[in-house]
DNA sequence: GGTCATCTCTTACACCTTGTCAAAGTTATC
DNA sequence: GATAACTTTGACAAGGTGTAAGAGATGACC
């Protein structure tokens, strides 16, 4: 229902649309308040052509976020989330997310802002949220995680913490390794996982 | 250095300034993209008067956030954060934050967006962040929290989780009690606190 | 290869918002 | 009550978004 090609569109139209989305992601990443004019120029088209593909600025932003979401779920689905311990799967999921997010650090900050209507927010985030939820549920069944906190809360909290980690490393307050480790440890603790996270044992 | 009255301003000027900040908080809470015209009208002044007090839209937004920050730190400082167990102090701190945030649910979403320059972000958030940090440090000294995660990360993560809880209850995905409980439990777990949080024992 | 629908470009316009300015009016303060 | 401070009114420029129509170019399809 999501990836329906609507109708056979002309090749140059598809090309323009892709160029606009590319340029929008690139430009907005560097300058979150860039005008449509700037984006159009970066895409090599005129502003009216942008309007021909995306009726309003908001729709364009939504399409950009949608594309990033698709990239993210693709990376997550490549991580074989149903295999192995849920703890490990969750870490693979977080790494997949980070892998996409690191390419658009500037958009990460604004991404939660752009989501205006609850409906659109739901439609977009639900695909990522569903995968997080699935892994958490599996971990609960296997006893790796406890089930004292509402699943909806945990999904929202994991997303927020992931964003926090992205910001910390994007602003160089932490290295990406530090942020990764802190995120993993924090999330696992929040889920009530037994032992501790990844590669950080060495106490004295 | 922050609350210096600059110079004796005329009474009506102070009144206007306060009315503008009030109206801005109120209007932006309901409609985050409201124009200066709308805000000015709600404050009972003209748009030019707004400009006389705040040179740009951004400065006004910053002043609004600053005011909310002041309210928040006031509420936190009234919570006697240096007394009793750090765990309890942290919960009082979170409740103080929620107490302010619940009055401006609409602003909560946008608040992280408005903070543009890293400098201003730091200046504003540092006052709240300092208090969180202080409590966490105390809890570490008393052994209530462990110290495996960087303090800076923990502060950022606590803020993010608090925002998540605010959003969950603002959008009615959770009741405020559920959100409160989930937030407390999550934060304490993340900090490596021994037992579990507040008033949620009742298993079956 | 030619035709036709489709897409893009140019030009043009209306509207809204922000920011600035100057002059006249009002208000508080000494 | 005189004066400085503040507000108001009116007016303007600049920039961004959204819309429209027609000419031109391009690709799809037969």
Write up this protein:
The structure is a homodimer of 204-residue chains. Chain A is mostly helical. The first copy, chain A, has 2 domains: 1-55; 57-199, Tetracycline Repressor, domain 2 (Orthogonal Bundle), CATH 1.10.357.10. Helix content of chain A is 69%, strand content 0%. The first copy, chain A, has 9 helices and no strands. In chain A, helix 5 packs antiparallel against helix 7. The longest helix of chain A has 24 residues, at 118-141. Chain A is elongated and about 55 Å long. Residues 1-6 and 196-204 of chain A have low confidence and may be disordered. The A-B interface holds A 109-110, 112-113, 118, 148-150, 152-153, 156-157, 160-161, 163-164, 167-168, 171, 173-174, 178-179, 182, 185-186, 189-190, 192, 196, 200 and B 109-110, 112-113, 118, 148-150, 152-153, 156-157, 160-161, 163-164, 167-168, 171, 173-174, 178-179, 182, 185-186, 189-190, 192, 196, 200. Chain A binds a DNA duplex (30 and 30 nucleotides) through residues 8-13, 16, 35-37, 45-49, 51-52, 55-57.
